[in-house]
TrEMBL record:
UniProt organism field: Rhodofomes roseus
Source organism superkingdom: Eukaryota
Protein name per Swiss-Prot or TrEMBL: Uncharacterized protein
Amino acid sequence: MAFVRLRKLRIDAFPSDHSHILLEMFEELPLTVVELVLRYLESPSPQQLVPAATLLPNLRVLDMHQEHAWCSLCNTCNVLRLKDDPVSITYTNGDGLPVRAPAFVRSVSTSPLTLSIPQKLYNRYLAPLSHLRTVRLSAAYTLDLSVGVGLQDLKTPWRGECGECTSLHLTDETFVSDWEAKNKEEPHPPSLREVTWSFALAQEEESSEEEYVDYVDKVTRVRHRFWKEVDHNSDDDSEWDYDGREWD
């Protein structure tokens, strides 16, 4: 295999692509890779990490640079809505990764109704990585006074939960007690020493939604042309607009 001295691998997700597991693009990776950077994940669900244990058994550092945080309570990926500006959070005891939600989560604190939550989590998929020591995650946020709670107000660890679930569930002592007990039973990466969450205020889009859709459509058409040429092993480049007219 080429790149036998490769130590760090960075993968940038394609804009607005929700469906692909990035690591599934590779059948094999050098065992020398010890650091993985995943950037611009639109939906950073735990499924993105499933191939890591097989492809990168010597991984030591995982960096997931993303805007959307995955909430293990409601299984959504959204920009955080918080009542005040959060500060960077660092865990040095192996904690800090999104954890398993209880089998049933109450939809509101006073309601008998429950929501069934799939049992997916980062810890379980990363547990086979015996050398993993550092995980860095990022999330964008917006300020919303209606949320009613800030991360600094919590008496329990915050691990990526959305603003609504943070306000509703992580302030419920009964819920938190049961949740933390179940979390201790879950497998964790044995060498994990540091998990860091960093935050950035979400930027307002400068362009309109129509302009963004048009941009993605153009990128998709160019990518489709490229793969069409590759599939047909064609040397004819007459369809390509190398002078940039495709982007006018």
